[in-house]
Structure formats: C-alpha cells, structure tokens
Write a structure and sequence with these properties.
Phenylalanine Hydroxylase, 278 residues, alpha/beta, 10% strand, two-stranded parallel sheet, globular, binds fe (iii) ion, four-stranded mixed sheet, binds 7,8-dihydrobiopterin, 12 helices
C-alpha cells in the first residue's frame, strides 16, 4: 500500500473518491505487516497504564486491537454507537480543507498503510498505527469528540480568514501533544504522544520540557518541533475546559495574534503558569 508518488506523499492516491476516501483493502496487508502491528500494539500497551488519561484507557479496553490491524467496519460499529463518529480510510495525508471537512462532519480520516520495519520506533507521517492507536480511542469521549468536530468547523473558517497557521498550533498542542492534569498526576491525551514508545513517558515524567497551563492565545503563538520530543507541553485540567475555552469565535483572537510575536518552541512567556512534576 505504501509507495512514493510524484507529489512526494506516501500511499496510493490513484483510486480515491473526491473526498479522498478509499476502501480498506484488508487482504492486501501481508503477514509481516500484521505481525508488525501486533508488535507495535504490545509494546505500546505496556506503557499505557499510568501514562494515558482514564478516558483513553477505558476506550482502548473496548477496542479489540491485539489480534491484528483493525477493520474499519468493526471499529465504526462501536464508535458510531458511542459518539456518532465514523472513521474513513484515506491514502495518507490529505489537504487541510479535505481534513477539516471530514472532521466537521464527524468523520476521522485514518491512513490505510502501516510503517516499514525501519520506522518501527519513529515515523513523521501518520500511519495506521498512529491513527488507530493514538487518535481513535479519544473519539469515544463525547466532549473530546465534540471538540474535534468544532476544530474542523473552525478550520474551514480559519482558512477563509488566512489564520490556519495559528489554528494548526492548537491541533498540535492539544490533539497531538496534549497533557491533562488528573488527581493521579499528569496524563497524556495527545495522539502523537500516545502512539510514541518514548515520548509517552518523556512527556509526563522528564524534567526537561516546559509544561504550561492551557492558554489559547499562548498556544496559538507557539512554534513547534516536528522532528523531536516537544520542548513545551500545554496542560488542561479537563476536556470541558478545553471545549469551553475554544468555543468562542476566534476572529478577534486572530486579529490580536497578527500583532503578537511568535514564541519559540522552547520559549517561556511572562504569563506562563508553569506546572511542576509531582
Ligand atoms: N491528513 N490523513 C491526514 N491526517 C492528518 O492528521 C492531517 C491530514 N491533513 C492535514 C492535517 N492533518 C493538518 O491540517 C492538521 O494540522 C490539522
Ligand atoms: Fe495525528
């Protein structure tokens, strides 16, 4: 399924529908790829307890990921019944507007291909393991599922306003690399962290990165790294807080951001509420 194309994206974009969706060709996965999934799954499962948030753990427990690469129909049955979301298979990365359009309609695009053996520990692009293991369980939490839909609607609007640069940082620092403060301590809810064998521990336990209390404006000003552990994580107290803080119309905020300087990925700002490890 994975291959290089002229536009430099991995995946087979030759048979997709106008919305970039494809059918999962389940029989095309080789025994080696099924085995790779199981090894990725078992390695990561060992690290989930005490590191992932409770909502994630609960949802993962109801997903039957251990036997091999999941089938879209099987997961969709459970997901649809719980939050009304549906997974659609895509060849790989899709254009921003296509991505937002899916989210706005409670559809999550999931990449069909699985990483190569040489990428077992680290991959930059989303593959099927990142999407199913990192993102899908969180879509079972109603308020988080609503946040994802609102993000999609906001993406379509931000595109019209030329504000995608700022909005993309919100996705990055919440959906991909978000932390939550719970009674048992810091926990991960970001998919980029939950699908990483090393960052899942680093994000909540290493003394190196900064951890800053959730602040929408601060997040939208913040640059990020795509090639290494994050140097800054933003911490929410609840998914309700995240949903409520991002409910207002961002139009005035974008106007303000146009006048504010970016903050480096490893920067600290005067108003930061720094969160210390227990
Ligand atoms: N496509 N398949 C896929 N998965 C993503 O996570 C994704 C994408 N296209 C665009 C995109 N993400 C970005 O716009 C996010 O920053 C919102
Ligand atoms: Fe992702």
């Amino acid at each position: 399924m994975a291959g290089e194309t002229s536009h430099g994206l991995r995946g087979d974009y030759s048979r997709m529908r106008p919305d970039y969706s494809v059918d999962q060709d389940y029989d095309a996965y080789t025994p080696e790829q099924q085995d790779r999934w199981r090894r990725l799954y078992h390695r990561q499962m060992e690290r989930v307890p005490g590191r992932a948030c409770d909502e994630y753990v609960a949802a993962l427990g109801g997903l039957d990921y251990e036997s091999g690469i999941p089938r879209f129909e099987v997961v969709n049955e459970k997901l649809g019944a719980t939050t009304g979301w549906r997974l659609v298979a895509v060849p790989g990365l899709v254009p921003d507007l296509v991505f937002f359009e899916h989210l706005a309609h409670r559809r999550f695009p999931v990449t069909g291909w699985i990483r190569e053996e040489s990428e077992f520990d680290y991959i930059v692009e989303p593959d099927i393991f990142h999407d199913f293991f990192g993102h899908v369980p969180m879509l079972f939490t109603p308020v988080f599922a609503d946040y994802m839909q609102a993000y999609g609607r906001g993406g379509l609007k931000a595109e019209r306003l030329g504000a995608l640069k700022w909005l993309a940082r919100l996705y990055w620092y919440t959906v991909e690399f978000g932390l939550i403060r719970t009674r048992s301590g810091l926990r991960n809810y970001g998919a980029g962290i939950l699908s990483s064998p090393s960052e899942i521990d680093h994000a909540i336990r290493s003394p190196k990165p900064r951890r800053v209390g959730f602040d929408l404006t601060r997040i939208m000003r913040s640059l990020y790294r795509i090639d290494d552990f994050q140097e800054t994580y933003f911490v929410i107290d609840s998914f309700d807080q995240l949903f409520e803080a991002t409910r207002p119309d961002f139009t005035p905020l974008y106007r303000e951001l146009a006048r504010l300087p970016d903050v480096p990925a490893n920067g600290t700002e005067p108003g930061d509420r720094l969160i210390r490890l227990d």
